[in-house]
């Protein structure tokens, strides 16, 4: 079985993405890495995202192909499980992974399931054009998700804006907000066109989500590829203490109760 991981990045140093660490991970897990999106326009159309995903998929020559952004990393301990599960589910068009979102390295939440592994050998006609974001994997017009393909408990460790400064976050959020507005003619919780408007809406989301970050982790429990970068976090980076919010927005009883319901519903899903 040949496993290919494709990723997408433009100016990753400026955007403060953990791209070197991600590539170390992808090299460890895959037989080949494909990189697309290098010429991503600064002011882009939203449907460009799905087109870049499609380019990465089309350029990948593996039996199984995994689409990962550079803020998503596998744990080195899961390499054998990942490959054995892909072989096990060889008759399915895709599998989904649970995604655990970190703001700070200290805590995370189970956020969602993502369909990032596609069985290209048997299902080469998968398209990245579905869902409200116009970039979810589809087969014959039907979205591939946890309702119709297997769940594989190989967690994605998602470091969402962990390494970015406020300035970088403001600019990036506004850029994506403008692209969304051009496509859909609404802001949909993205604030507005200016960096301040986009940031204000984003930080509101952070305050809302932080109490759901219940699962605690030490740096040494994170994937080895990312540990040094986490150790080197500086105060101006979001992942240091979530701009001072990490201890202000702690889980409450209702958050633990909701987490318990999730564990009951998906008992095999854990990080």
Notable traits:
3-stranded antiparallel sheet, alpha/beta, single chain, 271 residues, 8-stranded mixed sheet
SSE order and pairing:
Layout: E1 3-8, H1 19-29, E2 32-36, H2 48-59, E3 64-67, E4 72-73, H3 79-88, E5 94-102, E6 107-119, E7 127-130, E8 136-139, E9 142-143, E10 156-159, H4 166-184, H5 195-209, E11 215-216, H6 224-231, H7 238-241, H8 253-265
Parallel strand pairs: 1-2, 1-3, 5-10
Antiparallel strand pairs: 3-6, 4-10, 5-6, 6-11, 7-8, 8-9
Helix pairs in contact: 4-5
Task: Walk me through what this model shows.
With 271 residues, the protein is α/β, with parallel strands linked by helices. It contains 8 helices and 11 strands. The mean pLDDT is 96.
Brief overview, please?
The protein is α/β, with parallel strands linked by helices and 271 residues long.
E-strand count: 11
Number of helices in the DSSP assignment:
8
Counting helices, strands and paired strands, the structural category is alpha/beta
**Low-pLDDT stretches:** none
Largest sheet, in brief, is: 8 strands, mixed
Q: Residue share in helices?
A: 25-40%
Report how far the terminal alpha carbons are from each other: 26 Å
Rg value = 18 Å
Choose one word for the global shape.
globular
What kind of assembly state do the chains in view correspond to? Answer: single chain
- Arithmetic mean pLDDT: 96
Indicate the proportion of strand residues.
15-25%
- Secondary-structure element series: EHEHEEHEEEEEEHHEHHH
